[in-house]
Known about the structure:
Blueprint: H1 6-12, H2 15-27, H3 30-37, H4 41-55, E1 60-63, E2 66-69, H5 71-102, E3 104-109, H6 115-125, E4 130-135, H7 138-147, E5 152-156, E6 164-172, E7 174-178, H8 192-195, E8 200-203, H9 208-219, E9 226-230, H10 233-241, E10 247-250, E11 261-264, E12 272-279, H11 285-292
Parallel strand pairs: 3-4, 3-5, 8-9
Antiparallel strand pairs: 1-2, 5-12, 6-12, 7-10, 7-11
Helix pairs in contact: 2-3, 2-4, 2-5, 3-4
Amino acid sequence: MKTLLPKEALAALTFARLRALNGVMETGSFSAAARRMDVSQATISQQVRNLEHALNAELFKRVANDMVPTKLCQEIYKTSREIEDAGERIAKTLSQHSTLEQGELRVGLGNPLPGMALIAAFQDHFPNVNVNIEMGSWGKIVQAVTEGRVDVAVLPEVPDQPRFKRRKIQSQSVVVIVHPEHPLAAQTEVSCRDLMRERLIMRTAGSSTQRVVDEAFQKAGLSPRASIVLDTRDGVLDAVAHRLGVGFMWNKGASRQDGFIQIPCREMHLERSDYVFTLRATKGTLPEVFFAFDRRGL
């Protein structure tokens, strides 16, 4: 029997041949290995025959319907399995690098903050990632995550449900907002009863802000009437800035500070948590990295 020199043996051990050997070892047949690797049975058997021919050694013996590995095959497999595992780790690393260099991430936001600040810090680290942002009410963004329109989102009070993976990033509370020249502007705190005398600017159903406002008035035993109903936070800010009434917002929900003053409301002082969240079933490097990302870095 011809003995291969080390360099010749190394040349014979191609990655494709080793993967075929591993597949037959782990499944017990050419056909099962072919199904697992999504190639033809002829491809698997040819790779194994080529390896046997190059090594001038028998690797498998057919017993009934099974391929029984020889002692030499078992010894080679110990290392070939490690080589395939290492190859898969390298491929994953290259894929992650490529994704972080030129990938695309879809993010849903209910309020500009803290989501925009998180995105800005993320892009400082990964400037080539294209971030597409969908903004909307709390209900709309939860639906966007559930339906897969966005990969990851930032919202207050995300439900603690098995389908979601969530991480708390800050806490904030809902406050009253008024024009700087409004009579309430000098107050350090107001109550729901105080607000019953005002023209109230409310949000549409599905808004997390409106849900807190509704709960506060209900607990106070009051039934306010909305003077204006708007479907966006920016619409509320603009209405207050134009002296159309008294509105509500999350106290850390916007970078804009002009045209209104924040006032704590006695019945709304309880802080609620903001979360970055995604579906547990969501796969991919970018959603995983963004989910774990902190504004101070990974």
